[in-house]
Amino acid sequence: MSIFQGINTTGSALTAQRLRMDVISSNMANADSTRGKLVDGEWEPYKRKSVVLQAQESTTFASHLNAAKSVGDGVKVSGIVEDETPFELVYDPDNADANEDGYVEMPNVDPLREMVDLMSASRSYEANITVLNASKSMLMKTLEIGK
Q1: Pairwise CA distance, residues 5 & 8, whole Å
Q2: pTM score, two decimals?
Q3: Where is the signal peptide (predicted)?
Q4: pLDDT of 27-73, one tens digit each?
Q5: Beta carbons of 80 and 23 less than 8 angstroms apart
Q6: Which of 55, 58, 56 is nearest to 66 (CA)?
Q7: Separation CA 147–CA 144 (nearest Å)
Q8: Is 19 helix (H, G, I), strand (E, B) or coil?
């Protein structure tokens, strides 16, 4: 295990949580976008996206032998997926995107859920900053031992 392993692990978590906050911000910004993507010549509303995280595993043979002693290698983003929840139909006959019955398909984004997810990602980011500062402090104390 490297002396910088804690910093590397925390760095991967910070990167993942920042991307998660970016995707949530995009969801919130497009919560009312009825024209998200052109599919088969017709506009489809914006689809909510979410970040999928997974444990980042080391690929060396030695790391597999020492797996019982390992603290982990952090996280990585395995993908950004679209939510397949059906769109909500809202009656708005004056909307340019309304169908022949006057209904508009609205994005499957729930602003309340996005706010909760954003708060969770933000708290995770803050916790990882605290871990990073603690790791940095321990490394500095380690360097002072030799004085």
Answers
A1: 5
A2: 0.82
A3: none
A4: 999 999 988 888 888 889 999 999 999 987 766 666 656 655 556 67
A5: yes
A6: 58
A7: 5
A8: helix
